[in-house]
Design brief:
461 residues, five-stranded parallel β-sheet, alpha/beta, FAD/NAD(P)-binding domain, 18 strands, binds iron/sulfur cluster, binds flavin-adenine dinucleotide, single chain, Fumarate Reductase Iron-sulfur Protein, Chain B, domain 2
Amino acid sequence: MANKIPRVHAREQDAKLRITNFDEVCYGYSADEAVLEASRCLNCKNPRCVNDCPVSIDIPKFISQIAKNDFEKAAETIAQYSSLPAVCGRVCPQESQCEGTCILGIKNEPVAIGKLEKFVADWARENNISFIEKLQDNGKKIAVIGSGPAGLSCAYDLAKIGYNVTIFEALHEAGGVLAYGIPEFRLPKKTVVAHEIENLKKLGVKIETNIIIGRTLTIDQLLDEENFDAVFIGTGAGLPKFMNIRGENLNGVMSANEFLTRTNLMKAFDKSYDTPVYVGKKVVVVGGGNVAMDAARTALRLGSEVTVVYRRTEVELPARREEVIHAKEEGIEFSMLTNPIEILGDNNGWVKEIRCVRCELGEPDASGRRSPVTIPDSEFNIETDVVIMALGTSPNPLISSTTKGLQINKYKCITIDDDGQTSRTGVFAGGDVATGSATVILAMGAGRKAANAIDRFLSHI
Ligand SMILES: Cc1cc2nc3c(=O)[nH]c(=O)nc-3n(C[C@H](O)[C@H](O)[C@H](O)COP(=O)(O)OP(=O)(O)OC[C@H]3O[C@@H](n4cnc5c(N)ncnc54)[C@H](O)[C@@H]3O)c2cc1C
Ligand code: SF4
C-alpha cells in the first residue's frame, strides 16, 4: 500500500561541513525521490492538509502531478495560489500547518509537502518555466511600501491584472526579511530570492530602493502629489525588542535584526567585503524563535561558540522543529529554563559575562504556554563576548506617526479590517505591520487579500 512507504528524507549537507560555509543546508529531492515521496500521498477526498494551508494550495493535486512525473503541471498548480513557492517550500512552518494535519501523520510520518513544493519550484526555475501572464495596463497606479513577502505578493497580484505598481523599499535591496533576515544557508539569495523578484519585474513592477516612506516621501505625498490611486503598506515589524536589563548598552550587545542584517545584507560572512561584524569567541543568543536559531547558527558559522538561552523548555521553543534539530546537530548549546537578569562588562565597556537565573514552569500565561517562574538564589554567570537579543519585534512607528488618520492598536500595529483596509480611505496594509511578527505565508496571504480589496475599491470609484 502506498502509505506503507517510509517518508523519503531530503538529503542535507553534513553538519561538520556545513558549519564551515553559508551554503544551503538542504539539498532537497532528486526527481526520483520526489516521485517516490509523492506516491505516498493518499489523494484524500477531504484533504486536511489544504485546510491548514494559509493560502489553500491544492496540495493533493500538485502532489499527484509530481507522482505522475508531470513537474510542469505541478508547478502550474502551485502558481495559481502562491507567488513565492521556492521560498515557502523552504521556510514555511509546515509541521504546524499542512504537514501537521496530513492524515498519514496520525500513524506514520506525514507527506513531505514542503520539500515537494521546494522540489517543484526549483525544478521550474532551473528549467526556465514560468506562468506569468499580464492583462492590459489599466492606467491605475498603486504604491506598495515595503518589499517583503506581503508587499511582493500584493504587487504581483495587482500587476497581473493590469495595475501599474511601484514598490518603495527603505533598504538598498528588495526582499524584506527574505533578503536581510533569513540566512543564506536556509534561503539562498541569488538563486531563490532574486529570481522571485525578477519575476515581479517581468510583470512591469518598478522597485525603488533606498526610499523611506515617512521620511523621503509621505503617504499623503504619494496620494496627493505623485498621483497614486491606492497605497499598500507592507513595512513589516522591524523594530527589535530588548529586555531593559542592566548592561544592555555595553559594546557587544546587539539585536538579532542588526546582527542578521549586517551578515546577510552587508555580507559580513564574505571576507571580500569590508563590512565585518564582531562576534568574538563566545556568543550568547537570548530567545527561542526562528530568529534566535538563525542568529545562533550564523554566529557559529562566523567562528564562535554559541549558547542559546531560553526561559522555558524545549517543548515551548517557538522555532521550527527542523531549525532546532539543525542547530543541535551543528553544536549549538542550549541553556533552557534560563533567564538573563544583567549583562556584565569589562573596564573598557565590552561584554564579558551575562548573569542569569534558573526558572521552572508555572501556570499557563495569556499565550497558553506555561510561564517561567524564577527559582530563588539560582543566579549564575555565563562568560561571553557578545549577546544577541532575539526577543521579537514590533512595527516601526515612522509611517503611523507621519500619516494623518492612520490608526494603530496597543501593539503599535496598523489597524485593518478583514480586507486589509486601514482607517484611511485608499490606504491598505497587511503582513507583520498589521499582525506583529508572524510568518512568510501569512504575510503573503495578507498581501494577496489586500490586492483583491484594492481592485474592488478602485473598480467602484
Ligand atoms: C531572522 C528571521 C527568520 C524568520 N524565519 C521564518 C521562517 O523560517 N518561516 C516563516 O514563515 N517566517 C519566518 N520569519 C518571519 C517572516 O520572515 C515575516 O513574518 C515576514 O517576512 C513578514 O513579511 P512582511 O512583508 O510583512 O515584512 P518584511 O519581510 O519585514 O518586509 C518589510 C519591508 O518593508 C521595508 N520597510 C520598512 N519600513 C519602510 C518604510 N518606511 N519605507 C519603505 N520601506 C520600508 C523593510 O525594509 C522591509 O524590506 C522570520 C523572520 C526573521 C526576522
Ligand atoms: S492529508 Fe496528506 S495524504 Fe491526504 S491529501 Fe493531504 S498530503 Fe495527501
